[in-house]
Predict the structure.
Amino acid sequence: MIDLKTLQELRQELKQKFLQHNIESPEADAGLLLMHFLNLTKTQLLTQNPTVTARQEALLFQLANRRIQGEPVHYLIGSCPFLDLEFYVNSSTLIPRPETELLVEEVARRLSGFSEPITLWDIGCGSGCIGISLAHLLDSSHVIELDISKDALQTAEKTAKKYGLQDRICFVEHDILSGMPKDLPNPQAIVSNPPYIPHKDIASLQTEVRDFEPIMALDGGNDGLNFYRRIIAEAPLSTGGLLAFEIGYDQGPSVVALMQDNGYQKIELLQDLSGLDRIVLGYR
């Protein structure tokens, strides 16, 4: 006779397995895998205790072993929360970070007073967490999502359709280092969380990032500033247009200087909840 485990027994077993292998968030990751695989809500995970079949247990531990090898839990479940939405993610997109929520909030606050429709570019959109969230928050906005990766754009478009935002979002495959795209409406705002890791630092990134997230969405060139230089110098903004970036914690002075050298005004350097430089924004 097979000794079947209950949900709560399996939850504790997964948590202990992750603890033994130094997974950063063992309880949270165990819960996410169980909720996804068994189609449970958070309340059901915490309060119910059904028996789990032997096949379900075996498949769950296959996922757990992939997590132990370093594969991010959000790739395993295929989605990640960001502000009020849930975004599809996979190996073609970066996993949205909480720090990026601050960029969206700051941009939304500055654009919320616009009475006319706003055209906004999200350069290097990845999962679409920035542009789609802004479309969700700003009813008058039209967002153009730009990325070099066709797979990333298809992933972002799937999220946009899930929330009924596809009519106000356009997805454009483009390499921004080749220049600004032609034949697109000029934006009133450009937002970007571009690749900003210096090339020499890629090898020292944690396994979850280095071995599983897309390198082309991380590598910002020799000093990490390649994309900032190009976007700042060539952004097709009219006078008064907003340019806003997420930056690496030590890149604030460099990005501010680039914007000053290119004539931007009212430049602000903002910190995240850890007190680290995280956002630079200014006006053409």
